[in-house]
Amino acid sequence: MELVAGCYEQILFGFAARPGELWLEFLGTITCLEFYGTAHLLSGAEDGLICIWNTKRWECLKSIKAHKGHVTSLSIHPSGKLALSVGTDKTLRTWNLVEGRSAFIKNLKQSEFISLNPLKSGIRWYIFFSERKADSINQQNAKNCMYAYKDVPLSTDAHIIKWSPDGEKYVTVITNKVDIYKLDTASIIGTITIEKRISSIRFITDSVLAIAGDDEIIRFYSCDSQKCLCEFKAHENRIKDIYSFEREGQHVIVTASSDGYIKVWNLDLHKVSLLNCSMC
């Protein structure tokens, strides 16, 4: 078994039963890694490059200048023929992996707003972005506005992108908002918003999303209704990442947290689909 790790030192390391070995030095921090099967790996970095690796020989097959800014996230289509990437240049790009070229570029709207839940005062705030500045559309003063969104980092950059298991839809995450896109129209068919900045997201099925914010809670949402199905406290500190897989017909979730623990959970999807969480 082999493990791949990217780091701030602009180095991609591979670990196996032997000591770690250096594969490539980038010009920027490695920001994302994703395997396709056991034969290929895609890596993205702050220098805007996406590299396609052969994992048998650990050879870089193709290096693509993907974004003008950082590559913040990438995702490979279940067919292995397409990939999506997002970056700090505020574009979503579709890649033809068979030919190693760009297939489609979509500019992500910079006027998207972040909806925050009511504060203790009961006021509901909406923040929108214009020229990297934040304003409150309910005309409260700047001091109160800063107080309202101080727990949610101001960013209009998509930092997560994921394909659904069937490849018919994909999601992008901007701060605390999940936009659900339909592949054949490349249009948004639904939006999910939570209170905290989203740190990780995972399709459990084609219609159920697991979402972790900057807190200790895992939340399960329906892609169809965009409603929360249930939630549970997984850790004592914020959750950094979620992974899921099936084993002998059982859905398994793995969570990693700032509390130093990695936990493995058995998930009963039948019970999740029957629950209606009143807290969501």
From TrEMBL:
It comes from the Eukaryota. The keyword Signal does not apply. Pfam families: WD40. Coiled coil: none annotated. PROSITE patterns: WD_REPEATS_1 (PS00678), WD_REPEATS_2 (PS50082), WD_REPEATS_REGION (PS50294). One of its GO terms (biological process) is negative regulation of signal transduction. WD repeats lie at residues 64-105, 232-268. Keywords: Repeat, Ribosome biogenesis, Signal transduction inhibitor, WD repeat. InterPro entries: PAK1-Kinase_Regulator, WD40/YVTN_repeat-like_dom_sf, WD40_PAC1, WD40_repeat_CS, WD40_repeat_dom_sf, WD40_rpt. Negatively regulates the PAK1 kinase. PAK1 is a member of the PAK kinase family, which has been shown to play a positive role in the regulation of signaling pathways involving MAPK8 and RELA. PAK1 exists as an inactive homodimer, which is activated by binding of small GTPases such as CDC42 to an N-terminal regulatory domain. PAK1IP1 also binds to the N-terminus of PAK1, and inhibits the specific activation of PAK1 by CDC42. May be involved in ribosomal large subunit assembly. This is Anaphase-promoting complex subunit 4 WD40 domain-containing protein. It comes from Bambusicola thoracicus. The lineage of its organism: Eukaryota, Metazoa, Chordata, Craniata, Vertebrata.
